[in-house]
Amino acid sequence: MGRTAVFGGSFNPIHVGHLLMADEMLEQLDLDRVLFVPAATPPHKPPASLAPAEDRYAMVRLAVEGHPRFEVSDVELRRAGPSFTVDTLETLQGRGDELFLLAGSETFLDLLSWRHPRRVVELARLVVVPRTGSAFDPDSAAAQKVLREVGAETFAGPGEPVTPRTVLVVHATSLPISSSDLRERARLGRSLAYRAPEAVIHYIHRRGLYAAVTA
């Protein structure tokens, strides 16, 4: 049985910050692979700001090519309706791997708005990755409320004792790059260099993505 981190998101578009964080998770969590899962229809994102799902999936494929432990899944593109994480984890569980679900600290604090959040925590070890400089406090009332209501027990860092209900908090390098900034740059015709893999930048220009989309 392998150790697989599930890294979901709209990836609108994917950028080097996503890739750096995923690479650091491989080391810190002793993973066999990171599985990138582009959302077809993110439940919490306005569709008007999204590039087509097929384009976002194609950009992720280009971005992870050549990395021996990065993979991309089209599981959410093949499923109709909103891209609920719980459905994705149910599908991936059938592969037999031990699953880790990567989530930013803001995402964790919003977890109670997800579909069946308790089931999500049953299916995968939740890994909270705060941004550098983030004010995320595991002992805060907000964090403890989420922990309690999803049926988890405690927070722990890498190498600390864990139970099946422990949520990991793992810090990684956070670059000052965002997908919204890349979309705005593309809209204004500004440089995307060094912010996304070159193949992704070429794809954005070739497809004319984000040219008429505001950040």
Tally the helices: what do you get? 8
Helix content: 25-40%
Strand tally is 7
> Ends: how far apart?
41 Å
How would you characterize the overall build of this protein?
This protein is 35% helix and 16% strand. With 215 residues, the chain is an alpha/beta fold. It has one domain: Rossmann fold. It has a seven-stranded parallel sheet, sandwiched between helices. Strand 1, helix 1 (16-28) and strand 2 form a beta-alpha-beta unit. The longest helix is centred in the N-terminal third of the chain and has 13 residues, at 16-28. It is globular.
Defining key terms:
single chain, alpha/beta, Rossmann fold, seven-stranded parallel β-sheet, 8 helices, 7 strands
Summary?
This protein is α/β, with parallel strands linked by helices.
Write the layout of secondary structure elements.
Blueprint: E1 3-9, H1 16-28, E2 33-38, H2 53-64, E3 70-72, H3 85-93, E4 98-104, H4 105-109, H5 117-123, E5 125-129, H6 141-149, E6 154-156, E7 166-169, H7 179-188, H8 198-207
Helix pairs in contact: 2-8, 3-5
